[in-house]
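Changelog-adjacent note: as of this version, every example in the card shows the full chain rather than a window. The one below runs 83 residues end to end.
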Amino acid sequence: KLGAANVAEPLGIVATPDRGPAPLDVLLEATGVAPGTACAWDFGDGTSGTGGTAMHTYYSPGTYTITLTAGGRTASTTVAVSE
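Full-length structure tokens:
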């Protein structure tokens, strides 16, 4: 793994679950983030949060794009909420 320390792991989001009926509690986890890095979440429904992990409840059906900003990088994923 020579030189591996200089390669940043891609920023990512793990959403559990990523689909289901409303109200849907989703656990979000930032991946590829160095310890101590500030993480800002946009949950895609007009609300936001901070931290390496976040819990968010979606009350209305729809497809939401979740955006994570950390260390000058961004990542996004979608969550599908049914009726």
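Structural remarks: The chain has a mean pLDDT of 93.
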